[in-house]
């Protein structure tokens, strides 16, 4: 489909208007969270694309703080679930409760019935609890007893996890990790950022506060605008070639032969396109550039590229292999 320059200009005017609340959102979060631009961009993309986000990093890097602060900046429902080894699926989804007064069972809905759900330290809960949450994420509905209940709209899970080397964790299976649209890696702040953190947070009272600057209707409006952002056919082909190169690296001479056991699925192609659109939206553009695709490639693909034993023996990471893909797949 051919899109005229007039159409793109109209989309860009709409983008400029509807992206304004998200710029305010970013400013508000930065009242509490110093730096961590990639983390914040990823959280906003998840909101804009209706995609769940997995955040990984060692304790103390503001993962939970960033998500809870983002929720405070939106006039919407928010629930935090602290995952522990003794958690049960019913603790998340809800259960039937018997009422002796009339001999009937009533439904007690769990904390999953909210707009923004923070699954804190998701890898500390056993597999049956992880599966219950991830099924709700995929189907966006929950069955309790004989009845099925749709989840709220918007519904977004932002899960945090510590690296799997930490004691007492249950790593998420690859098939379940694939349910997350993005995986964000949170790293240590720079010395300059850490000094700002010290000045901002090293106090026992008077912590920084934020105010709500947007609402679910603005999020839905932004999503409808993002759906209309133009993606040129050559950029679409570039996205497809990037994903296929994770399965067939020889197709473009990418030097990762034997380093990947399983490549990315078509779900990655969809997520890569949506994330690139969201990246363009946040930049105030009505069209997607190849650079938008490159900007989001690591967050979309890093948890969908399954490394081989050989790659692990060479101490390579999925990000290393994605770098090679980006270097070798021709850019339109």
Describe this structure in words.
By secondary structure, the chain is an alpha/beta fold. It is 45% helix and 15% strand. It is built from 14 helices and 11 strands. The strands form 4 sheets. The protein has a 5-stranded parallel β-sheet with strand order 2-5-8-1-9. A two-stranded antiparallel sheet has the order 3-4. A hairpin with a 2-residue loop joins strand 6 and strand 7. The model has no long low-confidence stretch (mean pLDDT 85).
Relative helix content: 40-55%
Anisotropy-based shape: globular
Cα-based radius of gyration, to the nearest Å: 21 Å
Sheet having the most strands: 5 strands, parallel
Count of alpha/pi helices: 14
Name the structural class: alpha/beta
Number of strands: 11
Order of helices and strands: HHHEHEHEEEHEEEHEHHHEHHEHH
Name the beta content range: 5-15%
Q: Overall mean pLDDT score?
A: 85
The residue ranges in which pLDDT falls below 50 over 5 or more consecutive positions are none
What is the terminal separation in angstroms? 18 Å
Strand order of the largest sheet: 2-5-8-1-9
Short characterization:
With 332 residues, the protein is α/β, with parallel strands linked by helices. The chain contains 14 helices and 11 strands. Strands 2-5-8-1-9 form a 5-stranded parallel β-sheet. Strands 3-4 form a two-stranded antiparallel sheet. Strands 6-7 form a two-stranded antiparallel sheet.
């Amino acid at each position: 489909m051919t899109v005229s320059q007039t159409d793109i200009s109209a989309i860009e005017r709409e983008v400029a208007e509807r992206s304004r609340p998200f710029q305010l959102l970013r400013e508000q979060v930065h009242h509490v969270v110093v730096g961590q631009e990639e983390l914040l961009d990823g959280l906003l993309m998840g909101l804009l694309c209706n995609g769940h986000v997995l955040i990984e990093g060692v304790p103390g890097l503001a993962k939970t703080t960033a998500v809870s602060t983002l929720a405070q900046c939106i006039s919407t429902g928010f629930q935090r679930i602290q995952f522990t080894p003794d958690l049960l699926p019913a603790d998340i989804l809800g259960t039937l409760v018997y009422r002796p007064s009339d001999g009937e069972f009533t439904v007690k809905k769990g904390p999953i019935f909210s707009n923004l759900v923070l699954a804190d330290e998701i890898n500390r809960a056993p597999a049956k609890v992880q599966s219950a949450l991830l099924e709700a994420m995929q189907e966006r509905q929950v069955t309790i007893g004989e009845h099925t209940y749709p989840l709220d709209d918007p519904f977004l899970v932002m899960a945090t996890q510590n690296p799997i080397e930490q004691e007492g964790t249950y790593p998420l299976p690859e098939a379940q990790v694939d349910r997350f649209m993005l995986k964000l890696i949170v790293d240590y702040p720079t010395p300059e950022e850490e000094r700002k953190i010290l000045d901002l947070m090293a106090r026992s009272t008077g912590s920084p506060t934020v105010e709500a600057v947007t609402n679910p209707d603005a999020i839905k409006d932004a999503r409808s605008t993002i759906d209309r952002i133009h993606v040129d056919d050559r950029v679409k082909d570039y996205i497809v070639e990037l994903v296929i190169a994770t399965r067939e690296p020889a197709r473009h001479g990418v030097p990762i032969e034997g380093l990947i056991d399983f490549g990315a699925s078509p779900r990655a192609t969809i997520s890569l396109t949506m994330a690139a659109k969201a990246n363009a939206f946040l930049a105030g553009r009505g069209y997607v550039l190849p650079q938008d695709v490159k900007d989001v490639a690591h967050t979309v693909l890093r948890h969908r590229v399954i490394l081989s034993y050989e790659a692990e023996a060479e101490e390579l990471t999925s990000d290393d292999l994605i770098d090679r893909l980006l270097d070798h797949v021709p850019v339109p």
